[in-house]
Amino acid sequence: xxxxxxxxxxxxxxxxxxxxxxxxxxxxxxxxxxxxxxxxxxxxxxxxxxxxxxxxxxxxxxxxxxxxxxxxxxxxxxxxxxxxxxxxxxxxxxxxxxxxxxxxxxxxxxxxxxxxxxxxxxxxxxxxxxxxxxxxxxxxxxxxxxxxxxxxxxxxxxxxxxxxxxxxxxxxxxxxx
Length: 177
Hints:
By secondary structure, this protein is α+β, with helices and mostly antiparallel strands. It has 3 helices and 5 strands, in the order H-H-E-E-E-H-E-E. Strands 1-2-3-5-4 form a 5-stranded mixed barrel. The protein is elongated and about 100 Å long.
């Protein structure tokens, strides 16, 4: 090492040693003040269950609110492509709806969750068919235990296949009568 880098290293080392000694003295000061009388220790021991209870109730209240109030609701129509029950601990019904705008074009896939077992049974019987799904969207759900998506389907209705519109011949094309 050169003298300039030795000097920088020496200054850096002195700063680290000084910081270490300051932290050591601070820890000693905190350890002296850590002893408290029995009454104060008893109050602290009685207080922590209430703090824990407030935290748990706050989490439960937030979860209930996020599942009860919907951000939006609506309907989507498409082909029911996939439907399954999945999860390691919390089993939920998850599915995919293929939204075809124009035939021949790759569909947009819409993922959803079903909470009601009766609706899930109707959907299982409607796989591969064109359906109308009514859903509610819930944002801010704290866990995937309630579903992988924020879209919860609450009703399913079979829809007839769309009627093909007759194609008219272009101008100047003779038609048979």
